[in-house]
Design goal:
- The protein is mainly α and about 200 residues long.
- It has 9 helices and no strands.
Length: about 200
């Protein structure tokens, strides 16, 4: 991968083309799997040459890391801000957090499928530690909000870890059935998930 250009107009064009490549890779990896996707598939999907692809990214593995980064980093930032600034009861805080989470998944369906299908590919790679740490930080944020719900008697289950795993499982499974324009929007789905773990 070459160094990005420094001139603003050229950098904007470079960033746009790189993003198109990452999005195309996310679609392909989601549809046919990381291992089954070849550089030829990426060439066909993007219209770039193989050399052009390497101009924007170091290879397939780098694309996989970038897809995971784009899923987790913005979610962690949004969740951290929301929890840090929230002023209200913990059940409302949980609903706000899960809504933000489901909305983020809705906007990154291919990224989410790739993350769930392929995350073990990079388990031993040093780059994966950063991705894994981001995931764990998000889970700790969620668990902290659940703890506040538990402290005020708002959880419907006694074991908080069950509530945490129920939400992780439900939201992570969403891309398997969710269709844009369907009966439920992201907020309604999030509220339904919260209803599974909250009293009332």
């Amino acid at each position: 991968m070459r160094e990005p250009p420094t001139r603003p107009a050229l950098r904007a064009k470079y960033d746009r083309k790189q993003q198109e490549l990452v999005d195309a890779a996310a679609r392909l990896f989601a549809q046919q799997g990381y291992a089954a996707t070849s550089m030829a598939d990426l060439v066909a999907a993007t219209g770039m040459t193989a050399g052009g692809i390497y101009h924007y990214i170091d290879g397939k593995e780098a694309l996989l890391v970038r897809i995971c980064d784009e899923l987790l980093d913005p979610l962690l930032e949004r969740a951290s801000t929301l929890v840090g600034e929230f002023d209200g009861p913990p059940d409302a805080e949980l609903r706000a957090l899960v809504r933000a989470w489901v909305e983020h998944v809705e906007g990154h369906l291919d990224h989410m499928v790739v993350f769930l299908q392929e995350r073990r590919v990079l388990e031993g790679d040093p780059q994966w530690k950063r991705v894994r740490d981001a995931r764990k930080r998000f889970e700790r944020l969620l668990d902290d909000v659940l703890a506040r719900c538990a402290d005020t008697g708002l959880l419907a289950v006694e074991d908080r870890s069950i509530a945490l795993r129920a939400l992780l499982g439900a939201v992570n499974h969403t891309p398997q059935w969710y269709r844009r324009g369907g009966r439920l929007d992201a907020a309604a789905i999030a509220d339904g998930y919260c209803a599974l773990v909250l009293r009332g």
